[in-house]
Amino acid sequence: MDTSASVTSPRKTYVRYGVLALIATGTMINYLDRSLLSVAAPSMTAELGIGAATMGILFSVFSWSYALAQIPGGIFLDRFGVRLTYFLSVGLWSLFTLLQGFATGLATLLGFRFLLGAAEAPCFPANSRILVSWFPQHERARANSVYTVGMYSGIAFLSPVLFWITATWGWRSLFIIAGAVGMAFAGLWYLVYRDPQHSRAVNQAELDHIAAGGGVAPSERSPFSWKDVGWLLSKRQILGASIGQFATNATLVFFLTWFPTYLAVERGMPWLKVGWVAVLPFIAASVGVLIGGQLSDYLVKKSGSATFGRKLPIVGGLLLSSTIITAAFIKSDALVVVVMSVAFFGQGMSNLGWTLISDVAPKRLVGLTAGVFNFCTNLAGIVTPILIGFIVAATGSFLGGLAFIGVMALLGAVSYTFFVGKVERIEG
After folding, report:
1. Of 57, 88, 92, 382, which is most buried with the most CB atoms under 10 A?
2. CA geometry: angle at 267 spanning 387 and 276, to 5°?
């Protein structure tokens, strides 16, 4: 038997899938930690005397620092790389999650939520850089869908457990347990993760496969310049995608913050029942993420057009998300959950903005591009909880809040369709 072919051309390794499993786990912990407040909210408000408008601010304060820290986080990422940045980010945000379990009042909660947002800021820019480094273009949407599904499925399948923990041991135990788990993962990350060029597990065949498909090794780090920020925002792909992702995030933020309270207060569901019912839209969103990623890569491969392949699932998903407004006019709780599930399924499909931004980011500014993008999109995390909180406080109803989310979804569909333009890497 001639074995020369196997010697000279060994089968490529699949280390990138192990890396994908790592960032999927990290992303699941990320979103679990930021959403714990929505589970704790009813019992927390009773203990600490927090009203609806104040709770809206408490939900929102996370996004104040999260958005403000995006550009500094991108600069840090470009300067120190993925391994150290991710380790520090996970370790710090897990610490601030744990400390929320010891909060004594509104002031300490606001402080810990503010620090949590700042610490989480580099996570998605780091994920974006990992996609660019470890995956060829035709695999990126699927890779994005796999790690992104963690942020939905973790909440979906753990929600009954989280509500049970709250009912059994109190809301403080949620933060303490989740924080401890996250700190353990931070240590695992630092031990295991390496960039492709530094990994001992990856072989040359896999590196060649990544490079042939447009994978980009981290380049020499560019010094930060506000001129670069302005230049990035002048590019229609980045500005248009940022507007579109703002709209996508408005739907996501509603489900991460006000949705359990909506079911308990507006729909009058018992709290433990909410824990089970809230699972269904998150499962739907998980399916939407996977379908969107698979469909996008399939369309890119078949059509040869990243523009068509990336935009179609995003726009279709945003149109589905806009149907959330109909829930305000439905009396049946079961039908409301169906509508919410369809809307969140659409949000999952449309959550391909990170794949698109990975495709267009200039090679020398991958981290900064992701930071600018995430800053713009997470302004929705500031606006949405506060606006809904004040609407509920003023009207006693979620109607205006649901209308806002539906209109934002339509705006996002328009932006991705007409403003983003051609999906191709920006040179410069």
Report:
1. 382
2. 100
